[in-house]
Amino acid sequence: SDEKLDLNDSKWEDIHVITGALKMFFRELPEPLFTYNHFNDFVNAIKQEPRQRVSAVKDLIKQLPKPNQDTMQVLFRHLKRVVENGEKNRMTYQSIAIVFGPTLLKPEKETGNIAVHTVYQNQIVELILLELNSIFGR
């Protein structure tokens, strides 16, 4: 909505409120940031040999709609800053991937492979965080 929020208001002091809202925004999109039709492609990319994963994921991101690419770049740069402050917030690459993987990347229809999908979702998000500059440039 067009509501103006004052993030200095005491009701926003709990960081979990802000992060929960961010996660909910991405979870409630009509289609995930990593679009449904690319889910299996990203899973196949992360299954490749380690040296090929980055270029495969980068190529797939370039196939996404431009607004998705732009949003992804801003979001992942922010999440990288969160990890860089891990001494204060105790967030690691893995913990960010666990929190955001299933929210940003999911199949259109869930099959019996939920646990397997979760592993790949997390690995994809972690790879993008670790290889941010290679994938999105400086």
Please give a quick description of this structure.
This protein is mainly α.
Mean pLDDT: 91
CATH architecture descriptor name: Orthogonal Bundle
CATH hierarchy class name: Mainly Alpha
Strand runs, count: 0
**Strand-residue proportion:** under 5%
CATH homologous superfamily assignment: Rho GTPase activation protein
Give the termini separation. Answer: 32 Å
Order of helices and strands: HHHHHHHH
- What gross morphology would you assign? globular
Oligomer, anyone? single chain
Structure, described:
With 138 residues, the protein is mainly α. It has a single domain, classed as Rho GTPase activation protein (Phosphatidylinositol 3-kinase, Chain A), CATH 1.10.555. The chain is built from eight helices and no strands. α2 packs antiparallel against α3 and α6 crosses α7. This is RHG12 protein.
Descriptive terms for the model:
RhoGAP_dom, globular, 138 residues, GTPase activation, single chain, mainly alpha, 67% helix, Phosphatidylinositol 3-kinase, Chain A, 8 helices, RHG12 protein
